[in-house]
Amino acid sequence: MKIGFDTRADLKLPEAALAEYLQAHVPGFHGPLVATKFDGGQSNPTYKIDAASGRYVLRRKPPGQLLPSAHAVDREYRVLQALHGGPVPVARPLHLCTDESVIGSMFYLMEFVVGRVFWDPSLPDVAPQERAPVFDAMVDTLAALHSVDVAAVGLSGFGKPGNYFARQLGRWSEQYRASETTPIPAMETLMVELRARCPADDGVVALVHGDYRIDNLMFDDVAPRVRAVVDWELSTLGHPLADLGYLCMALRLPRNPALPGLGGLDRERLAIPSERHMLDRYSALTGRALPADFPFVLAFSFFRLGAIAQGVAKRAEQGNASSDQARRAGAMTALLAELGVQALA
Fold this sequence. Notes:
The protein is α+β, with helices and mostly antiparallel strands. The chain has helices spanning 15-25, 73-83, 128-146, 164-179, 185-197, 240-249, 275-286, 294-318, 326-330, 333-344; strands at 33-37, 46-51, 54-60, 93-97, 107-111, 206-208, 217-219, 226-229, 236-238. The chain has 2 domains: 9-111, Phosphorylase Kinase, domain 1, CATH 3.30.200.20; 128-344, Aminoglycoside phosphotransferase (APH), C-terminal lobe (Aminoglycoside 3'-phosphotransferase, Chain: A, domain 2, Alpha-Beta Complex), CATH 3.90.1200.
């Protein structure tokens, strides 16, 4: 992860009190510690913890007024517990603290995974011949995630099975309304058109990540292999096409500092696989055929991300977003909505 310092006093951690708490609750942990907030990310503030006993990562709920059901770090921790040691690589979870008096909000501690994070999906720092294997590894890991037996790993009750897209449209419409700051016609269009085209439930249920993109993966320092999938805040039981559409959405996102995509780039010249290649690879690995109305899936992804960006904008307005990039990300809502309308055409 990219490291930076945040000057907001309410995001600084009480290092002495935290060290005392972790030493009492995490086997092998020894202080003192130094906490450094990672730069980037608009949701749950994340910190590198350098302690006498080693290096760790801490994720917490942001302080301040929050939307209902948002920033559920306890759900993230549950997913890490369920997946660690299996075919989907994740950091080892170490401790969940629900006592908000320790640092001011709920948090959890996990191991520090050494690896590379690719913030720019065009992979400018990767040799051209290595770019396709990176994208293939991303698709392979997604297929592995969607093949997890949720009952076997104890996640049967992690979400409501069935009617995923209909329920998500309702949820994100509510979240958008709760964080709306100014009318956005394209968002209004999407809320109407997506409901009209929402597919009937086909009975497929999988563990979905909810924010599956290249910068939420940590790759091996040398090989094109995923070492950890991170940022599980939006994970739930749902339809695997939601993650797949979200992944393909990145191919259409503009070249923007807040949400860097591949839109407008010559992906063939960059030696980045085509969308068709990625979809065919995913289908071959999972045995699932793509729906006829894949544009609905893409447009749904743009709408959902637009609603999330609007939530970031609202938090920035309230002064409790976790990064200085929050205002820029929130300003993307209108553009994402327009791209969603285009995807439906």
